[in-house]
Amino acid sequence: MLAAVVLPAAALGALTAPPAAAAPAADIRINEVVTTGSVDDSIELYNKGTATVDLSGWVLKDNDNSSKYKVASGTTLAPGGYKAFDVHGSFGLGSADSARLYLADGTTLVDSYSWTSHSDPSWSRCPDGTGAWGKAAALTLGKANSCSGGGGSTSPVAWPGSSAVTTADAANVFGEDLSGLQLEGGVLWGAQNSGKLWRLVPNGSGGWKPDTANGWGSGKALRFPGGSGTPDDEGVTLTGAGSAGGVYVSSERNADSSSTSRLSVLRYDVSGSGGTLTATREWNLTPDLPSTGANLGLEGITWVPDGYLTGAGFKDAATGAAYDPARYGAHTGGVFFVGVEGTGTVYGYVLLEAGGFTKVATVASGMAGVMELSWEPQANRLWAVCDDTCSGQLRTFKVNASGAFALSAVHNRPTGMPNLNNEGFTLAGAGECTAGSKPVYWSDDSNTGGHALRRGSITC
Predict the structure, then answer these.
(1) Cα(318)–Cα(307) distance, rounded to whole angstroms?
(2) pLDDT-based confidence at 342, cuts 50/70/90?
(3) Burial 328-346 (b: 16+ CB within 10 A, else e)
């Protein structure tokens, strides 16, 4: 008979605890690079995953395969952790060079970044681990990157279109509080904070006027399901079915109880002629979101189709796996993204036809607040817009190689537009491209100079 073998507790722990190396290597990202200045030749790694990763023996290189820095045995990186490596004893990082990370075999590439000029003060990702590369506001080796001072991970660039902006409405039509916008071909939908939805049509001179048919002349009052309350509606969007499938509005509170947050998405049937619209469905997201001031809640809303998300490899935060629309049953064929003014955070939700919902994404915009969101299918990018709080800055996000929405660009407002309280933004479709440009529209919550709508252009 074989004698029983008694293992010490430490050994038992080693048998039962999963090794750090079991975590996905793809969660480790090159996050900051320093080539010159007060700290020379350093590469920072960041763990964007949920498990500790063993980095023992991993290899860092520049653009020369013969240059190698081997990570010491026993080196691990915890979830959300940062670790900087001073590589100058093995190689130098030049003004036009690369930082490359390999597994311990020295041939399996994990991540890389290349540049064409020295860092000043560092090349950094923002948001950490997932965002676009750019020159940071400060050197931050070993801690979160400095994603401020320029508004984001890349230096803001000029508006990608004409600098000219003109008014797009007659004087004193809407008054204050016109917020979210959504173009639908020859119709412009507008949400007004006072619990009103507008259906606008072309005015013949490149702008918009209220539709006078079917009771839309002064906009239509909105109500919660059952006909009660007044939604403080801030954003408006449509699904792939267009307005025939319902108009969706984001609301941050019931104006009849203005001190209490009610972070909701509401759907309205806009086919009738009555002057009041009662929501046919409400998705109250309040319990699922961090608490916020009653007037700092849901501002922007937009809808992104399942086809783009699956094709881009979007990762479902609820499952940790690739987004699978079939998992959710009947759900409008896409994901609704909502922006919270108070935190500048964007959340993605699958809204079920039966009334339930699942949060599938959380995106840090890097801005002080998000006042509008707009999906541009022609360029497959998500626009996040800030008002005069951020000098009218706009940011775009795309799904990156890790399946997350990451910052792709930071744009200043057109130079021809003052720093207005713009809370709405929408872009024309590809069909309106003329000579390489298409219209875009902003809504000014303050109705500056008696005008709430302005028109600009952007390259197609």
Answers:
(1) 19
(2) confident
(3) beebbebbbbbbbbbbbbb
Give whole-number Cα distances, 404 to 29, 187, 250, 373, 457, in Å. 13, 32, 23, 17, 29
3-state SS class at 457: strand
- Which tens digit of pLDDT belongs to each residue from 208-244? 999 999 999 999 999 999 999 999 999 999 999 999 9
CA distance 456 to 460: 13
Q: How many CB atoms lie within 10 A of CB 210?
A: 19
Give DSSP secondary structure letters for 280-348: SEEEE-GGGS----TTSSEEEEEEEEHHHHHHTT-B-TTTSSB--GGGG-SSTTEEEEEEETTT-EEEE
Q: How far is CA 77 from CA 26, 28, 232, in A?
A: 13, 9, 45
Query: How far, rounded to the nearest angstrom, does the alpha carbon of residue 325 sit from its chain's CA centroid?
Result: 20
pTM of the entire predicted model: 0.69
Token readout for 447 is 């109705």
